[in-house]
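Before relying on records like the one below, remember that each one covers exactly one chain. Contacts with other chains, cofactors or solvent are not represented anywhere in the record.
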Amino acid sequence: MNKLSEATKYYIAGFLDGDGCINAQIVKRDDYKLKFQIKVYVSFYQKTKHHWFLIWLQKNLEYGSIRKRNDGMSEYTITGPDPVQNLLKQLEPMVRIKKPQLKLVLQIIKELPKAKDPQTFLALCESVDRFEQLNFSKKRKINSETVRSILKS
């Protein structure tokens, strides 16, 4: 991504602000010591008619995967702390609308390696809960209360 021109970075940041999503979620993982994982990702959406644009974006960003959904939309998603951090650090000065989500996900990524014990992990899960308000999430099923109840049992 370092090879992208400043103009292209501004364009991608604008696209992220308009048709993108910066998010973190808690995922159930029975094979993990704390039974959950915090997943961070950035997604871009476009009508499948313009699927070619997401292919161009993936080629330039060099991360992630693209899928065609059944609803006529295509989705390009970059997942994982390192790729997400690399992308967002490059776009940080240019992003406007999703600046709160960007700052929060970068903070979560910074804290992830420290979240080895239940108390620290739970505090990080509470930070993830803030995305429900920032992104107007309606389908979030697992939150910090879910994690808290499992960790207590």
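Strands lie at 20-28, 36-47, 65-68, 73-79.
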